[in-house]
Amino acid sequence: MVEGHVAPGFESVRDEFERNFRERRELGAAVAAYHRGEKVVDLWGGHRDRDGTKPWEEDTMVLVFSTSKGLAATAVALAHSRGLIDYDERVAAYWPQFAQNGKEKVTVRQLLGHEAGLCAIDERLSSRNLGDTAEVDRILAAQTPAWRPGTRHGYHALSIGWYESALISRVDPDGRRLGRFFAEEIAEPLGLEFYFGLPSDMRRDRVARIKAPDPVTLAREFRNVPPQMARAFFNRQSLTSKVFGNPRLRSAATLDSSRYRALEIPAGGGIGQVRSIARAYSDLARGGHEIGIGQATLDELTAPATEPSGGAMDLVLHVPTMFSLGYAKPSEVAPFGTSETSFGHPGAGGSFAFADPDAEVSFAYAMNRMGLYLFDDPREKALRDALYECVAARESTPAPSSTG
Fold it and tell me: pLDDT for 232-278, tens place per residue?
């Protein structure tokens, strides 16, 4: 069921990955990790189709939902490093139309920190109008904030990516949207295969098919959804329902349909190889030099997240969360990495990827059978814990003596 390799001393990660298939109902998945720039884990296994007939192969790609957000944020970070964007400048300074309906003072930092109140979009979005960037930008610019920007935060599940793309297109000298900017400035230099908008000539059978939770899984795992969030889902007037109800999808797995795969959805529609995600975060974990992230930008990314004035309670997810500059940061309910310098993002269904600069570790995991954990899916958590145990063991082993 499992192929790939691990470096000596990282065998327990493979053991847990195999255990996912035996005991944790894994269908198909991949996991990759780097330590000090060395790829120490690169595993894949199971099946890429829903029926369990086609093997997950070395070059299989998969939709990673909100794990996409971290890679989109890296594109914005690169723009910051090049002096194209100032995190503390007003968004409207770059995009004047954005100033409509009470948004004239919203800063880039507030927008990327999910503090702008733009998590729910009032005008209907669909696969038909999301391909029209001018129309999407018009809709985004006209949106009224759900709260006074900077006072609270709430998860901008899909909207944040479209706002990022609109911003990138206005500061990039070539007018590129985020997807093309990422492809040419990050993916190409690092040799990544990861897309915001799947190319039309891509073989469809290379992309794993997402399996939405079946009724048995829903019954068993729905208790893992935060209770207040679960209740809000069923209240059509709630902010949570409005955020996740536009565009109107039968389930999150609908983003895996051909009509959505082709669209640029930076906050939730990224598709690629898991090892490519780990490779991108490996560069960030070691300073970001390969793609040109400057020290001032890295200092911003590794700084602890700060709560908005109204506190850390997320008005959409209904649990305390911490965000900074487009990334999720470690928090009391969602700890990861070895310190607050870590940054990354989880995705619906169980995927997760991040950089840990203090330990010089990067990690990425994605699957095609969706779970219902907001964070710490047992399949992912087991791999992450095993990785850190291996890193700790490696660092406690004395280096070989150079003397005879």
Answer: 988 999 999 999 999 998 889 999 999 999 999 999 999 999 999 99
pLDDT of residue 218: 84
Give domain status of residue 298, yes or no: yes
Q: What percent of the chain has pLDDT over 70?
A: 99
Q: Is pLDDT above 60 for 91?
A: yes
| Two structure tokens written together for 33 | 């990790």
Q: Which domain holds residue 112?
A: 59-343
Cβ neighbours, 10 Å, residue 235: 11
- How many structural domains comprise the chain? 1
CA nearest to 182, candidates 250, 270, 278, 113: 270
The three-state secondary structure class of 163 is helix
Catalytic residue positions?
Answer: 66
Burial 384-394 (b: 16+ CB within 10 A, else e): bebbbebbeee
**Positive/negative CA dihedral, 325, 185, 261, 206:** negative
Count of C-beta atoms within a 10 Å radius of residue 249: 16
> What is the separation, in whole angstroms, between the first and last Cα of the chain?
44
Is 398 buried (19+), middle (13-18) or exposed (0-12) by CB count in 10 A? exposed
C-beta neighbour count of 368 within 10 angstroms:
28
Residue 194: give its domain's CATH number: 3.40.710.10
Residue 168 lies in a domain: yes
Contact 153, 314 (CB under 8 A): yes
pTM above 0.90, yes or no: yes
> Cα 272 vs. chain centroid, distance in angstroms?
12
CA 306 to chain CA centroid, nearest Å: 20
CA dist., res. 222 & res. 293, Å (int) = 40
**Helix or strand or coil: residue 2?**
strand
Q: What is the dihedral of CA 60, 155, 291, 93, to 10 degrees?
A: 140
Q: Which helix (H) or strand (E) segment is 89 a member of?
A: none
